[in-house]
From TrEMBL:
It is found in: Mitochondrion inner membrane. GO terms for cellular component: mitochondrial inner membrane. InterPro entries: MCP_dom_sf (IPR023395), MCP_transmembrane (IPR018108), SLC25A33/36-like (IPR049562). Keywords: Membrane, Mitochondrion, Mitochondrion inner membrane, Repeat, Transmembrane, Transmembrane helix, Transport. GO terms for molecular function: pyrimidine nucleotide transmembrane transporter activity. Belongs to the mitochondrial carrier (TC 2.A.29) family. Solcar repeats lie at residues 6-115, 123-210, 229-313. It is a multi-pass membrane protein. This is Solute carrier family 25 member 33. GO terms for biological process: pyrimidine nucleotide import into mitochondrion. The lineage of its organism: Eukaryota, Metazoa, Chordata, Craniata, Vertebrata. It comes from the Eukaryota. It comes from Eublepharis macularius (Leopard gecko). The keyword Transmembrane applies.
Length: 319
């Protein structure tokens, strides 16, 4: 029993460290992605010439349409209007939340894996899917208030040299204007996003099996060399699995951001999906995907590989 508790503590510590490292390195891309997902993104007006064939003179008219700015334009706008510090808005609640979030997630995942291994074929895809889904459900339910504050801070436009609300002030404002329920906006979209976690871990665990079978270098004794963690291989496995999962399940991210906006017309998951599709078209569900991939792939690679490395280095001390 003591061994199981120590194993859980190891996964808590490793998950927290991995999440913290990943959050710091990828925070600017997180801010850009959230801005791109927002309905308050300033769309550029583009004018296209259009010839009116039905007119006697054949004169052309100008047709206006709107184009969503890309990652570079949003980055340039933030730097020019708000300053470099705005690229790290929301890092406070992110750091406050990411360590316990990742710790809870990996601890729950490890515990669920032990449970489902006794029910299904050990280390099969169904075990990985059920474990990832259970861990994501518990983590999302517990951590949604912190992510709500983080999103609000990232969406808040900062005027250069002006004083903006800090994490505590933002949390108080949400409570004062929306009550306790305000902290749980976007939770339904987070539950829908469990599908992304399930897909990611199913692919990751499958790739991880192949990575662990690779010998870093020939060893006559076949001992520690064969059992050592292939750090680079795990990073590639994590990057591939997260990239595939993000592309498949990305629309829930846009819906979640819209639900967390202040003074928004978006009230529920299905209603938001219908509004976005009707008003902006289906391509709007993929706004910010490139920034998300640029952020999530290295972030997941850093988190999972750091987690695996710490577990590998410390597992002997927890036996």
């Amino acid at each position: 029993m003591a061994g199981q508790e120590q194993n859980t503590l190891l996964h808590l510590f490793a998950g927290g460290c991995g999440g913290t490292v990943g959050a710091i390195f990828t925070c600017p891309l997180e801010v850009i992605k959230t801005r791109l997902q927002s309905s308050k993104l300033a769309l550029r007006a583009v004018y296209y010439p259009q010839v009116q064939l039905g007119t006697i003179s054949g004169a052309g008219v100008v047709r206006q349409t709107s184009v969503s700015p890309g990652l570079v334009q949003v980055l340039k706008s933030i730097l020019e209007k708000e300053g470099p510090r705005s690229l790290f808005r929301g890092l406070g609640p992110n750091l406050v939340g990411v360590a316990p979030s990742r710790a809870v997630y990996f601890a729950c995942y490890s515990k669920a894996k032990e449970l489902f291994n006794s029910v299904f074929v050990p280390n099969s895809n169904i075990v990985h899917v059920c474990s990832a889904g259970s861990a994501a459900f518990i983590t999302n339910s517990l951590m949604n208030p912190i992510w709500m504050v983080k999103t609000r801070m990232q969406l808040e436009r900062r005027v250069r040299d002006s004083k903006q609300r800090n994490t505590l002030q933002c949390a108080r404002y949400i409570y004062r204007t929306e009550g306790i329920r305000g902290f749980y906006r976007g939770l339904t979209a987070s539950y829908a996003g469990i599908s992304e976690t399930i897909i990611c871990f199913a692919i990751y665990e499958s790739l991880k099996k192949h990575v662990n079978d690779i010998r870093l270098s020939p060893s006559p004794a076949g001992g520690s060399e064969r059992n050592s963690t292939n750090f680079f291989g795990l990073m590639v496995a994590a990057a591939v699995s997260k990239g595939c999962a993000s592309c498949i399940a990305y629309p829930h991210e846009v819906i979640r951001t819209r639900l967390r906006e202040e003074g928004t017309k978006y009230k529920a998951f299905v209603q938001t999906a219908r509004l976005v599709a009707r008003e902006e078209g289906y391509q709007a569900f993929y706004r910010g995907l490139f920034a998300q991939l640029m952020r999530q792939i290295p972030n997941t690679a850093i988190v999972l590989s750091t987690y695996e490395l710490i577990v590998y280095l410390l597992k002997d001390h927890f036996k």
